[in-house]
């Protein structure tokens, strides 16, 4: 299996006001975005070119929105990138850059 192009762990993933997981994973691998629970079960996935991601104007720096298969997910990532050797989720800006680089759509809300 190919190495992921983007990996974020300990990500809070929710839909509307309902949290789906507090320690999920977001992966971009082989041109697909995968949203996973903390146990590795798939919440949703889609080819990156069909994913729309944005940073909401009303939220803090660590939040992003991703529309996958017509469903809008709220992602809460870290507000800073981890230092070398330190584990933890990357920032929302890095997530948006990874979506853009992989061919997805990004917008600024």
What are the key terms here?
mainly beta; 49% strand; 8-stranded mixed β-sheet; single chain; 1 helix; PH-domain like; 109 residues
Model description:
With 109 residues, this protein is mostly beta strands. The protein has one domain: PH-domain like (Roll), CATH 2.30.29. The chain has one helix at residues 92-102; strands at 6-15, 18-29, 32-36, 42-47, 52-55, 63-68, 71-76, 105-108. The longest helix is centred in the C-terminal third of the chain and has 11 residues, at 92-102.
State the strand order across the main sheet: 4-3-2-1-7-6-5-8
Find the count of extended strands (DSSP E, 2+ residues).
8
N- to C-terminal distance: 35 Å
CATH homologous superfamily title: Pleckstrin-homology domain (PH domain)/Phosphotyrosine-binding domain (PTB)
Radius of gyration: 13 Å
Major β-sheet profile: 8 strands, mixed
Second-tier CATH architecture:
Roll
Helix content: 10-25%
Give the CATH class: Mainly Beta
Number of contiguous helices: 1
| Percent strand | over 45%
- The overall number of domains is 1
User: Mean pLDDT, nearest integer?
Assistant: 84
Question: Which fold name corresponds to the CATH topology?
Answer: PH-domain like
Low-confidence stretches: none
């Amino acid at each position: 299996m190919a190495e992921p192009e983007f990996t974020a762990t300990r990500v809070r993933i929710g839909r509307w006001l309902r949290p789906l997981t507090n320690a999920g994973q977001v992966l971009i691998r082989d041109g697909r975005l995968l949203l996973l629970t903390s146990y590795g079960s798939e919440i949703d996935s889609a080819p990156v070119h069909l994913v729309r991601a944005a940073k909401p104007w009303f939220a803090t720096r660590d939040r992003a929105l991703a529309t996958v298969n017509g469903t809008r997910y709220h992602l809460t990532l870290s507000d800073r990138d981890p230092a070398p050797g330190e584990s933890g989720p990357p920032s929302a800006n890095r997530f948006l850059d990874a979506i853009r680089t992989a061919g997805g759509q990004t917008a600024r809300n």
